[in-house]
Queue: 2 jobs
Job 1
Amino acid sequence: MVNTVNEKNMEMKRDRQKKIREKLMFGLFTLCMLAVVIPTLLIIGFIVVKGIGTVNWSFLTEMPRMGMKEGGIFPAIVGTLYLVLGTIIFSLPLGVGAAIYLTEYAKQGRLTRLIRIAVLNLAGVPSVVYGLFGLGLFVFFMGFGSSILAGSLTLACLILPIIITTSEEAIKSVPDSYREASLALGASKWETIARVVLPLAIPGIMTGGILGIGRAAGETAPILLTVAAFFIPRLPGSVFDQVMALPYHLYIVSTQVPGMPESIKYGTALVLLGVVGVFFAFATIIRLKFKQMSHLD
Amino acid sequence: MSVVQNMEAIIEVKNLDLYYGDFQALKKIDTSIEKNKVSALIGPSGCGKSTFLRTLNRMNDLISGVTTKGEVTFEGREIYDQDLDVVALRRKIGMVFQKPNPFPKSIYENVAYGPRRSGVKNKKDLDQIVEESLKEAALWEEVKDRLNKSALGLSGGQQQRLCIARALAMKPQVLLMDEPTSALDPIATNRIEDLITQLKEHYTIVIVTHSMHQAARISDKTAFFLMGELIEQGDTDKIFTTPRDQRTEDYVTGRFG
Ligand SMILES: Nc1ncnc2c1ncn2[C@@H]1O[C@H](COP(=O)(O)OP(=O)(O)O)[C@@H](O)[C@H]1O
Ligand SMILES: [Mg+2]
């Protein structure tokens, strides 16, 4: 009798300790989460509060005036839209293609391992180095000059590692049983990839796309060397034209022009956030569409 | 009935060896699969049943490091020939896997997948193939009102019958089944066993099973594998009642495996 009571007590004590430990861990993780989320919200909130007063229709659609101290930032918005679009057009097919090759076609071994490590390392190369590379290859050697084309290609190189790595993960996460089912039905390898593997991988690939877009839209150093203009009060006529771009414009209005009103700086920053947000939204919609299509949700 | 006519072998295997790297998984297999019969492959886990089944539609090609030696002929044609069209072979020899693996697409698209890949485009033709195949797989009545719903919403047994329908949609001559009921409950298992006995009228079926009951119930021929070797083969009732080899007897009477 005494024994069982004792045991009961011990058990209750253990239970209590366990519960406390659970609560502690939960609290710890909540703190980690807050430590990440709160600064992000603060930054966004700060920019929204300080910039929202400036952002109106004319700010979005007019040319800059009076040494950029008045008027809008239309050409910089258009420039960034073109650059991001160009970057996606070059990097997505190439990156997904490379990922397909690496996962589905290449014989897995030392060479593919080496390529993977190289790609991962490329993701860590500072963006100004990409800028210099783009300047040498696209602007001078290929003769594109400082242009949308050269800038997009440079940004595409910059985000290719992200696209390749996330696409590879997405493709690898498609269960082999689907590939086997398709091949056993007499589908060719390419049909299997196109009809079964890729549709299932697209949500994951879009995640890489989103990350890439965020970087491409926000980078300053690479475009500074390959495309961005200090001030062009008109829209580009072709892909061989220079453009203004939001991140570079933000840098200019924040540091290069004395007496620049605060409102223009934060307005520009807010618009940059907005443009990235719009691309994110697009990618997310595509993601959801494909998830629905594959009945996985 | 037509016993003599049915004695025809559709697949013949001679001296087949298969290696995963250095490991020999199949040793000198000699056998033949008879047309419009159900042949069961039995034996303890790891004895090479799946491996053997997958040599018949060259699914082992997908695994790197596999070497195959010997002869496998399908309708008299060597299937390990360099210039054999594997895609065409797999259209004639369908496969159903151990775990039901319908595509995460609609029921309709699952069945239409194979025909689409072999060039059927006309919607009417596809509709007809889908309906026929689902009827053949005894699934039509249960799904005819939800053809455009996800296949993943079906029960396990229904999913497996869908996989059978998907294979039948290619009008194959041979259907390979690798433990098709091992992931299913007894009722779903029964339905699939009934289905198999119906299907053998039009198809040649090779089924891997670890259930002796299943082999006895549905197969005409049985082959007993042990550690990569084919120990004994013959009419199912003979294998189960008067096996020649002691090891076969031990296995079918449940003394090991
Ligand atoms: N992909 C593979 N690589 C290496 N060995 C394998 C592979 N698949 C199966 N084996 C081995 O081959 C033998 C036969 O396997 P399997 O054909 O799956 O047996 P069963 O279907 O009769 O259970 C087992 O010893 C197994 O470990
Ligand atoms: Mg097996």
Job 2
Amino acid sequence: MNARILPYVLILPVTLFLCVFFLYPFVLVAKQAFSTGACFTMENFREVTTYWKFPISMRNTLLLAAAVVPIQLALSLLMATMVTRMQKGRDLVLYIWTIPLGISDLAAGLIWLAIFEQSGFLNTMMNGLGVVDKPVNFLSYQHPGVVFLAIALAEIWRATAIMLVILVAGIGLIPKEYYEAAEVFGASPWKRFLRITLPMLRPSLQTALVLRVILAFEIFAVVAALGGTLFPVLMGETYAYQFDLLNSGAAAAMALIILAISIGFTLIILRVLRVPKGASI
Amino acid sequence: MSQASMAASVPDPQPDPDATPATNTRSAGRFLYVSGVVLLCAWVIVPIYFLMINTLSSPETVNSFPKPFFPEFDLGSLTFFAGFAGMLSALKNSVLVAGMTMVMSIVIGAPAGYALSRFEFRGKGTFRLLILLTRAFPLPLLALPLAVMFIRTGLDDTALGLALVHTTLAIPFSVLITFSLFSGIPIELEEAAWTLGCTRLTAFQKVVLPLILPGITASAIFAFVISWNEVFAAAVLTIENRTLTAFLLQNLDTSPLHLKFAGGFILVVPALIFIFAVRKYLFAMWGIANR
Amino acid sequence: MAEIQIKNVAKTFGAYQALHDINLTIADQEFMVLLGASGCGKSTLLRIIAGLETATSGEVWIGGRRIDHLSPKDRGIAMVFQNYAVFPHLTVFENIGFGLRMQKLPNDEVTRRVERTASLMHIDQLLKRYSGELSGGQRQRVAVARALAMEPDVILMDEPLSNLDALLRMEMRAELKGVLAESKTTAIYVTHDQVEAMSMADRISVMHQGRIVQAASPIEVYRNPSAEFVASFIGNPPMNFLRAKPAGAGKWTVAGQLFDGPTADKPELQFAIRPEDMQPAAEGLKATAKVVEPLGAHLLVTCEIDGSLFRAVLDSDMTVRPGEVLTLAPQSNRVRWFDPETTLAVA
Ligand SMILES: Nc1ncnc2c1ncn2[C@@H]1O[C@H](COP(=O)(O)OP(=O)(O)O)[C@@H](O)[C@H]1O
Ligand SMILES: [Mg+2]
């Protein structure tokens, strides 16, 4: 086949597919959000934003992202630098550290439920140590702090791996000569990390953060498994509008709000971590 | 403790390597480093181990207090799980949807990955941007309007309908991953095949495909995992034909603990195997797909 | 019969013109070398002949058949790549037999041809190995064997030896020349190494900035370069150039000395002479020695004549000290003249 049209033939399936299942539903969701019946209206947005749970779920989602993402960033950087120094057992350690990559948020929620529930392992341990004399129902409204902690831990546990993989791949692309040169000039390991690894890692950091932050606003099943209705989040409210309240207009409006927040944060990350043209490897 | 501060406390092997204080700090640093690694491994494994204890214990043990720290290898919870109405068919649906997602995302995505790695064409940049953009999008949300569209086309509550949405999730990954895999195969190998009597297609079959197959398998498995784990769209788009994740989510309030834990464990096991299967490719896949 | 004709071939990449109006005829069984600096368009021309690249305009004919619209497999060519392109998932045997299998030859014929070419290239011991288990030199041999096994009309080679170390390169050079002469295949061989070109070629096409500057036998290219570029590109050290002013009636003044030259009506010419064609003499050009390099076989003296750098290769028995003023006379039948305006040779 003609080499000029062949590439277009090859990308046609993906393009068509994304038009039907990505762009088109995107238009639909926008239409649905801005209309009740046939006419244009902001009614759906007014409805969802004035609902008493909205500020709470918004605050919860943002708070969770703010607590979880920085810790994950630090943790994944730490783990990534640790494996690059590793000689023995590198493959095994990397395998173990990337296991959560394959675990769904629902399963992660259930895993941490096994720890935090009333007859769970945390209570067993605290009881064994004599800290409490009878099991505490941590995941209840009396302990909002513990609920938050459980959800945050489950998120950190589950979704650090994706950042780790991206960062390890990124570190692997940094030419060794830079480190050797820095060492010749007498830079300490900490200086080398600050002056070489971090700046050279910027594209990977960008990818990792964008992906992670978007996933953070999508948090849903972990919360459903651990907090239930105790800890409302945006995605959970969207689900509730669609199913419990059967109000798809409101659900669409919520979806657009989550989209807007995601895009906003993506742009901020891209801007803050932008790689100057020609400065990449 | 951070890697950085720990590393900083380790002096470089400078003038006098035999000096005791330096040796001490270095072995202390070594100890910190190793225990850090071990601790982080435990941090990943121990929670999964707890879930396994619960799964391999009888329902009575799971609901009792205090918990044992070793499984009693009782299949009671798993038998209950298998016998629970709808659970096995949900499991079957999960496998079906994930299988379809896997096939579709590779069949649709790989040609585009090949085009990106082998051709310079107008609109290449825009196309790549579109792909990256989809990756930076809370895609499960798009299940909401699709629910309506599917009802009209008869795709509602079918495995295929959900697989289509999951394919949208998996496609950016499969395009970028196959792109990086194809880029790893020198174009000269294909060109050599052409000069030796191959057409584009036969050269692809005889040279590129055998070389790329392990990588394609890895990215197919990745697509499988994406679908297998997806909760929101699955819950929105299926009612009768629930997948395992959707089924568990729906029954979170009502199902007993041993059912939840057994279900969670069934969700986790394939993940352990899949990540093991693709571990060699994980980093290579992300390395180039990054840029 | 596989004569190759390249007619008015041009190639542009976007706004960049990589090849300008190339015309070249390569005789049947001729060993043609395309020689030029990196980036001059050698590979592009070779790939256009192979069908891996499409010419922007022009025609390519092989054996009286126009082939520029055909795909590579239908052109009767085989190619050896710079990085060998040995298929990593196939054994050496299957690599060499790859093209034969594509032609659907019977098994015993494939085996016969593979074994014959393998023994020709001295790799019969390696037939069961994979490319990962071969050294660079062995891979090179596999790549050549794979091309020869096709018994092509034309064999195209793009810097096939440039990834080998110097010693191996010299060895392979001789071997390849012998094997190709025996196979009676028309060959086009791309290289940037003039020694390789001189030693292997029946004819050399010297390329510069997307043009063929001269296509002639090695000795012709060396002795009678058709342009300043060829003169300064071929030969190590390259040809010397000095400014010549007309002194009337075919006489030219070079650094104060009078020489017989062409009877051209030009305000200025370049006087050119190879370093080894200079001899110390009683009368001649006055050269101040700057750097003296004893190279064993010769003595390389870099000196200054009339304000220009000038190199002479002298007998190694001579002793020359820096600062010494030598009197050097050119061997008169080796002097060449170039027009500085057109940079072309003037007869
Ligand atoms: N695919 C291409 N796209 C754009 N420019 C190219 C391409 N291939 C070659 N060129 C340019 O054409 C010129 C000639 O390249 P090439 O034929 O590979 O040179 P050589 O083999 O003599 O070193 C170079 O300047 C190169 O940059
Ligand atoms: Mg070249």
